[in-house]
Every structure is written in C-alpha cells, then in structure tokens.
C-alpha cells in the first residue's frame, strides 16, 4: 500500500514538472521567439512559419501536425507512444494558443536578445520535460519512423529537420538575418537542454573513511535509498584496519549526506568525485 502511494506521488510530481516545463517552452515562443519573427526548430517552427505566412495560430498548427504524426507513428511503429506524449502535445497546444492570444506587443525589441532568452527558456523547459520522461512529439516522431527503415541516428534526423524548417523561414520573411537568428535560437536551445539534463542526472562517487561507518552506511541506504558497499582497508601509515564506505549518489543528495556525516563523525575522511555515467537500479538504464 505504501509503495503504491509512493508511486502515485512520484507520478504526480512527474506530471507537475512536465507541465511546468511545457509552460516554459510555450512562453519562450510566444514571449520572445514569435514576436521577434524568429523561427526555431520542430513542429513549433513549422507553426511559426505558417503563422508569419498566413496568420494561423501556432498552437493550432502544432496540434494538427502532431495529431497527424502520432497517427502515422501508431500505424508504422505501433501504439508505443505513452500518455505523456499526448498530454504534452495538448498542454503545448493550449499554452501556445492562450499565451499568443494574450500578448499584444513584443516584450523586447532586440532580436538577438529575444533569440537568446527564448532559446534559454525553451531549452530549460524541454530539459525539465525530458528529465521526467516526457516528450513533445514532433520531429522526435519523424526521427523514430525514419530510424526504423534507415541506419541513421535520431539526433541527426532531428538536426536535419530543424535546419530545413529554419531555412524555410527565408521564403516567408525574406530576411537572412532572421534566418540566422533562428539558428542562434536552435544552438541556445541545444546548449540549455544539455545543461539541464546533465545537471539533473549528474552523479557523484563517495569514499568515506570513518570508525562509525555503520551509522553512515545505514543513513545513506535507508534515507536516500542508495546502495552502499563497505570494504576492508588498511591505513598504511598507522597499519590499522579501516572500513571504507563506497556509494554512488546524485549530486543533489550530497549536501544532506555531508551534513549527516558531520553530525555522526566530524573527523571522517571523505573523498568525492564526479562520474561520467551511472547505469543500473536507481540510475540510468543501460542502452545500446
């Protein structure tokens, strides 16, 4: 019963975070990118190009294009797209429509600043969504379909799609500057997205030397649900036997662990280092 309740709470927190990320993504477009007549990548970029050309709201285009892509994906790949993708699609469509209709004038007159701020806000929002297992669909779906039939990486497919979408804005806006600003936005989005994802998943490996190793190991194991290994060691200077507590934790968990170690054994010796990747239970899944 407790496990089921805990799972529901975690699921609710995931959807709450995904919603926040999607709202940030929508506002990035309607507050900065679209008012500056910049086109980014993805289905939102397609919607922006059509909006500049015909005046059709971006949210409507986003919804219709994604519905078509999801329908094709279900037929080609099977019903493997989770509820989070459909939920994200609806939230972004509503967010773009409502916020675009409410904004009458651009917040910033500087095009370059709009490109940077829009890219940052969009990238951070997407990073939050992806870190919680969400997806905005769009070019991700196109990539998944192409990858099924061609030996090419999904990232390259998405990159090609974004480059083509941004380049198409030239035929509508007739401005090389606006097109270049679109590529600036794409680069900033990519950087912000990677920064959020690497920050959210960053891990640390801790070596803890303490005579009160049992209390420290129990705290890490029980309070943070992290695996702990205790090894036998020998202090070469003193020739005394020592116990070494080894654990891999998320960076965000280290603060609480340090405070507890200081409370249990202020004289403990601790070595901590960042690790490039951690795979297994409680961390990332091992992918081929």
SSE map:
Layout: H1 2-33, H2 42-54, H3 58-77, H4 83-102, H5 111-131, H6 139-149, H7 154-173, H8 176-200, E1 203-209, H9 213-223, E2 228-235, E3 240-250, H10 254-264, E4 269-275
Antiparallel strand pairs: 1-3, 1-4, 2-3
Helix pairs in contact: 1-4, 1-5, 2-3, 2-7, 3-4, 3-6, 5-8, 6-7, 7-8, 9-10
Explain what you see.
This protein has 288 residues and is α+β, with helices and mostly antiparallel strands. The protein folds into two domains: 2-200, no CATH class; 203-275, Alpha-Beta Plaits (2-Layer Sandwich). It has helices spanning 2-33, 42-54, 58-77, 83-102, 111-131, 139-149, 154-173, 176-200, 213-223, 254-264, and strands at 203-209, 228-235, 240-250, 269-275. A four-stranded antiparallel β-sheet has the order 2-3-1-4, with helices on one face. Helix 9 runs antiparallel to helix 10. The radius of gyration is 24 Å and the shape is elongated.
Helix/strand order: HHHHHHHHEHEEHE
Helix count from the secondary structure assignment? 10
Structural class by SSE content: alpha+beta
Report the major sheet: 4 strands, antiparallel
The amount of beta strand, in percent, is 5-15%
Cα distance spanning the termini: 35 Å
Total domain count: 2
């Amino acid at each position: 019963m407790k496990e089921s309740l805990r799972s529901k709470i975690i699921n609710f927190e995931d959807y709450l975070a995904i919603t926040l990320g999607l709202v940030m993504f929508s506002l990035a477009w309607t507050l900065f990118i679209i008012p500056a007549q910049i086109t980014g990548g993805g289905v939102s970029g397609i919607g922006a190009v059509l909006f500049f050309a015909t005046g059709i709201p971006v949210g409507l285009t986003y919804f219709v294009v994604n519905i078509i892509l999801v329908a094709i994906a279900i037929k080609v790949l099977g019903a493997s797209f989770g509820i989070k993708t459909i939920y994200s699609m609806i939230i972004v469509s509503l967010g773009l429509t409502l916020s675009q209709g409410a904004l009458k004038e651009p917040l910033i007159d500087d095009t370059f600043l709009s490109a940077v701020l829009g890219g940052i806000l969009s990238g951070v929002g997407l990073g939050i969504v992806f870190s919680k297992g969400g997806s905005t669909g769009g070019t991700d779906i196109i990539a998944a379909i192409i990858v099924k039939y061609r030996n090419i990486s999904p990232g390259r497919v998405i990159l090609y799609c974004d480059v083509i979408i941004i380049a198409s804005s030239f035929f509508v806006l007739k401005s090389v500057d606006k097109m270049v600003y679109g590529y600036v936005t794409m680069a900033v989005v990519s950087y912000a997205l990677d920064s959020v994802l690497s920050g959210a998943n960053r891990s640390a490996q801790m070596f803890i030397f303490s005579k009160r190793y049992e209390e420290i190991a129990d705290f890490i194991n029980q309070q943070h649900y992290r695996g702990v290994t205790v090894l036998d060691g020998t202090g070469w200077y003193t020739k005394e036997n020592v116990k070494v507590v080894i654990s891999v934790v998320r960076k965000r968990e280290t603060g609480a662990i340090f405070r507890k170690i200081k409370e249990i054994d202020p004289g403990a010796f601790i070595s901590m280092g960042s690790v490039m990747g951690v795979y297994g239970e409680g961390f990332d899944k091992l992918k081929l």
